[in-house]
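(Deposited chain)
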Amino acid sequence: MQPLSEKEQAALCGLLREAADDLGAPVPAEWAKAVTAAPRHRFLPPRVWLIEGDGYAPCDAEQEPDRWLEAAYADAPVVTQVNDGQDPGDEDVWPSSSASAPSIVLRMLRELDVRDGMNVLEIGTGTGWNAGLLSARLGSDRVTTVEVDLGLADQATDMLKRAGYDPCVVGADGAEGHAARGPYDRVIATCSVQEVPYPWVAQTRPGGVILTPWETPWFCYGLLRLTVEEDGSASGRFSPHSAFMLMRGQRIDLRIFRDVVRDEHTPVESCTSLSPWSVTGDDWTARFAVGMQLRDVWHTWQDEPDLDGVQRRLWVATADAKSWAAVDWDGHREDRFTVWQHGPRRLWDEVEAAHLWWLSAGMPRPEEFGLTVTPEGERFWLRFPDKVVSSY
């Protein structure tokens, strides 16, 4: 493998310093060694997409080598694929795969607590960098990585081989795990899930750990660490500081006016004193708690709708598109908002109840919540596993 240039060495050292600042401690020696052995830039494609204005613009290594290298070693995610690999043409460009920020990658690897000789399954190969770090730490024969996008799987295999690593790269749906190489001591996902696939639990040894980003349609924010039990269940707690792209098989592609609201709908009018910003704004602890209770509910804002006396409108809807609510702000009052609700469920009433429960419970933070996964479903609990909040 070609040695690093001085510029690349300096960028790599900067990455380790920034990661240490984020971790609040030096990067563990074994992972610092892995980062040096598997440099991030060697796993990025020649073309990446960087934020530019309100969207994304391509950056090519040949045309803008300094900008590309700077992006490769910045403590930020780098978009490596858009629109599921399809040419967007004149359509909107949206990210479909990325290299995660180095600090969260190293934070998760530290949380994974891998040890020599362990067998590890990764869900979401992406660029292959995470699999490269695991291979540098454990040896390629101890690492299995699954990628649903066959094109990305091929690219990652090539990048890994060029870097000197040969883990088992499987092109398949990561929700099914990969039983042929199990059982595993550790499972780590580099995509977010709204429901933990039970095959991950079934393919992990008792005492093994599953670490995955987690989200709800309401709020994308959280990291879940589960320990597998002898009875085939897995249980653990959430922590904050994680936001990843959702596993493709769990995506929800809904739009308010295309899929939910219809001209013939006759919504019921009411009013509320609960500010819509209380459940969608900067207080992510409230947003986490609401999303945890309303697992099939999502929301979106509409600015300056063409309605008299309405400055902003919050839309709330179910994932099956059968129920919706709208909360209107007139641009002036902060203590009264007009509510419209339609469908078999009164969604804003449910949001109010979820928020009230969170307040009465003492405004718990994400790390006070936990999840138990069984073959039958999932149970969410507060502080102790027997204090079940909701189940699905």
